[in-house]
Amino acid sequence: MTVEWGRDALEGALLDGRYRVGTRIATGGTSTVYRGLDERLDRPVAVKVMDLRYAGDQQFLTRFQLEARAVARLKDPGLVAVYDQGFGTPCDAGQPFLVMELVEGGTLRELLNERGPMPPHAVAAVLRPVLGALGIAHRAGLVHRDVKPENILISDDGGVKVVDFGLVRAIAAAGITSTNVILGTAAYLSPEQVRDGNAGPASDVYGVGVLTYELLTGRTPFSGDSQLAVAYQRLDHDVPPPSSAIDGVPREFDELVAHATALDPADRYADGIDMAAAVDAIAHRLDLPRFRVPAPANSAQHIAARPDPAPHPAPRQPPPPPNPTLHMTRAPQDWETDTDTQYQLVTGEFGGIELSRFVLERAHARRMVVIWLAVVFALTGLVAALGWTLGNNVGALL
């Protein structure tokens, strides 16, 4: 008999005699995440409870435990810390769960939905901690396998963290998983994951390349009628340059995406650390300003934390289809819809120039062009009038 628990069935439950389950944050295809409290240490935590269908799968449970232990050993500011794991909830004696660091903020997906495509300095600010965290895991022999905006958290203090290491591998080990199901999110899968299910550090690099394209343009590079159609496109199609979807993307970012998403894994950056070095080089070459990534204002995590959730503005609608007339090279205020949805810069400078001067300089340049054109036209008219007068009176002068 399949047990189906209601919307608040686990809220208030005590897991392992220690973790009090609070309000639900989000529900996915394989798990549900709750706010929680470690009553022994009196600290807030996040509790990820896996779906009931995994409760009796011994292959999954074994892999789940191994992956949780491996990830718990990793230490990096860009990784969401894993504190504990267990089996058993009030719904089912073997239902597995993870206890993790609670990141007060929201997901990168929610941020993109609220604010749309990012300018280059914001993209670099997201990629650096993500690639640093992946690099630490890669050097420890771990692969994420499912790099996507939903698995990147933005904290209220500007921290960027990667979550859900090892879960894809654990799910793949489950006996209930069909061999013809492509695991991971189709939009970000590498060609080798689609082809035979194999994944290495270069597979995560491919996912970050697709993520970079999306951050710059507001959408993923491939589309189709089904997840399989989207996945199979990358077997023989290159990811297009971001500048083909939105004008003004620096050439360096086109090259970064092309290198990260090469069809052959051997042609990509070797791992997260290798790609992070490339991002640092680009940021230095373009003199990109430092940037504090904002947390989404109306994330599910923030809403769950409210004692009485109030109505909140609808998230920003997805951007229109790619159009070459879109421009990346816009003034700072063009990146916002109101004062609550602006990508804020830390230094207030770009290329050594105060950002507030960009608009003034551009307006001044336009005025100077108009003035010079007026002067040229006036001088041309004066010369023409003088020539006409002299021509008509040359006989009298002689």
Quote the CATH topology of the largest domain: Transferase(Phosphotransferase), domain 1
The average pLDDT score comes to: 79
How many β-strand runs?
11
Radius of gyration, whole Å: 27 Å
Ranges with pLDDT <50 over ≥5 residues? 1-6, 320-327, 329-341, 345-363
CATH superfamily of the largest domain: Transferase(Phosphotransferase) domain 1
What series of H and E elements makes up the topology? EEEEHEEEHHEEHHHHHHHEEH
Percent in helix: 25-40%
Strand content: 5-15%
Region (Disordered): 298-338
InterPro entries: Kinase-like_dom_sf (IPR011009), Prot_kinase_dom (IPR000719), Ser/Thr_kinase_AS (IPR008271)
Protein name: Protein kinase
Transmembrane segments: 369-390
Secondary structure: elements and pairs:
Elements: E1 14-15, E2 19-27, E3 31-38, E4 43-50, H1 58-72, E5 82-89, E6 92-101, E7 105-107, H2 108-115, H3 120-139, E8 152-155, E9 160-162, H4 167-173, H5 191-196, H6 201-217, H7 227-233, H8 251-260, H9 272-286, H10 300-305, E10 349-350, E11 353-354, H11 355-397
Antiparallel strand pairs: 1-2, 2-3, 3-4, 4-6, 5-6, 7-8, 8-9, 10-11
